[in-house]
Write a structure and sequence with these properties.
The chain is an alpha/beta fold. It folds into 2 domains: 200 residues, 3-Deoxy-D-manno-octulosonic-acid transferase, N-terminal domain (Rossmann fold), CATH 3.40.50.11720; 187 residues, 3-Layer(aba) Sandwich (Rossmann fold), CATH 3.40.50.2000. Helix content is 47%, strand content 15%. It starts with a helix and ends with a helix. The model has no long low-confidence stretch (mean pLDDT 94).
Length: 420
Amino acid sequence: MIWRLGYRLLLWLLFPWALLHLWWRGRRQPAYREHIAERFGWYRARPARPVIWLHAVSVGETRAAEPLVRALAARYPGHELLLTHMTPTGRETAQQLFGDAATIVYLPYDYHGAVARFLARFQPRLGILMETEIWFNLVEACARQHVPLLLANARLSDKSARGYARVAPLTRAALGRLAAISAQTREDAARLERLGARGVEVAGNLKFDVALAPRLLELGAELKRRIGPRPVLLAASTREGEEDLVLDALAHLRVEGLLLLLVPRHPQRFDAVAALLEKRGLAYARRSDNRTVPADCRVLLGDSMGEMAAYYAACDLAFIGGSLLPYGGQNLIEACAVGRPLLFGPHMYNFAEASRLALADGAALEVADAVMLGERAGRLLADPAALARMSQAALAFSRAHQGATARNLALCERLLENRG
């Protein structure tokens, strides 16, 4: 009880910060200043049919949820699908993927009144929280109103587990109120159980089931034609500080005609990375210019959203960003699905199991730092046979771990049947 009161008091103390945060983020991303009422539980949308609700924080979770959302739509055509997000990019991604086939809004901040208004408005028959979204007031309110909650595709790194352990009473209570949990790996399940979760099932990772959009594969082929017959090293989803390291590695690569396809993780950093390229005196082009890449261009800046699969399809070798510096890495499954050999740094803790399996299956190589990144990339790009072997291993790795959608759909069916 004391922990719960303390949590609610903390939320109210943070109320001015929440408004300031939206205003501040809106300086670079104006979309943060839109639909603010939804973040406090006020909505225009009103469902006309029973609701199945899925919450995905941002872009990665939304894309991971795609196969499950489509499976739910096919299995329950008489229900309305409600998708909630916390970031504008997540919301935009859902709009691109599902359009008018789903109602798309923001999940309210975890204030008692806001959560109550959200549930009263939509009255979901089932809630699905993607990956590790545990909002204490939301979970408690769903339990009181008998809305079964599934924590789907759950992953929990050691670092995140230590964070939740600091508020152990709240975490234990929230996990205990979930109707079901499907974890990506046995390690994720074990961490959740140590924090108080019960009956965790290991269902695998939904991201292995994401079907690559044909239009993105076609776009990748078109990008490759614009680049021409030259080797392409992709640095995917790089984070702040990593672009300098990748460019240092590029300076030592002796691969004739090499083009670096550099794609920052966050769109608000596109211009900053462009300024970095200009400061270094590197000839570069921008994807948004939509032109043929000049022969003397060293870097193509991937300044677009929702085209990562196309970037993977256009490259010969991919480096996974967020892994040279301690950001936890990024999803490597999409790259494997198009058969691209991978390199990543030592900080893949957010995708520990997937990266371990990719290494074991020969689909990826780990590098310790930027120097090794340059060395490994140079060797692979000079060895077509080695690239081909890793490409086949990546495809096999991707196909071997599919099936999570069917297992998660079965959990959803069971929860809906039990509710009656």
